[in-house]
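User: Could you check the structure of this?
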Amino acid sequence: MGFLAQPNIPVIKMANMKQTIINVSACNEVRHALEEYGCFLADYSDDDDGIINTTDHDEEIINMMEVYDALKPLFDLPIETKVKNTSPKAYHGYVGQLPFLPLLESMGIENATSAHGVNSFTNAMWSSGNTDFCKMIQSYAKLVSKIEETVRKMVFESYGVEKYHESYNESVTYLLRVMKYRPPSMKETRIGSISHTDKTFISILTQNQVKGLQVKTKDGYWIPVEYPPCSFLVMAGDAFKAWSNDRVHSPYHRVVMEGDEYRYSIGIFTYHKGIIQVPEELVDEDHPRKFNSFDHFGYLDFYAKDSLFDKEYCHINSYCGV
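Assistant: Sure, the predicted structure tokens are below.
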């Protein structure tokens, strides 16, 4: 009797891709991965070990280990300092001390590609500021935002709707979230983050050497995410699913902790300031309209108030489904 092989998350080499020379087959490869898995690993491993550089400019070179080292003193700050990380937007501020998720602690930096956004966060955490932290986080956010923009443009081009990309790009805002998962004690749950889909357009996740992230396939398999060196997990969120008229898959994912090491993770989450519309080109006889136009941050608020927030349930369909 044979055994079915467990599927693997696609890995796509991105190191040599520039927005000006992206070819059709590469665009289709990215689109197909997001349609079938809802995610893929963007591999930039042509660079030196531990160093990521998506441009020709020195300031965009990032040493990932240095980024994670900078998170440790941040999370070591007193709780009364960390809770100053607030926002009127749902899931944009401090999250922690939750009885049903005792291992997780997280903070959000809004408008993370701008000096003002990062400075506002840093000044709230450190009374005298923290210039080194500021520079590192903003550089990281800028680098990953370029990856996000490239991926988004590739999908738009693959669907033949690239004419909408520039106007969409003008409405993008980036939230950077830093996350810390402590190892569980003997009697605690190993669940660091419950199964959920992201409410974003696109999410891009990295982690330190401690594993734990799992992604659920359409067939119900939980796949452990194995990051190649110098790679990013690119994941579609519910807003991307709706924009694509249900072509792109928004996958469930979770964190399950093992061992006795702390896990640090960074996510860049893309939101749209305004109304998201399904392109008319993506509506036809084979793909009847499944979603109405919707306000992205309105959807985030809707989800935050949904009593079914912790269930595997299509929240975006409830919000704006036809």
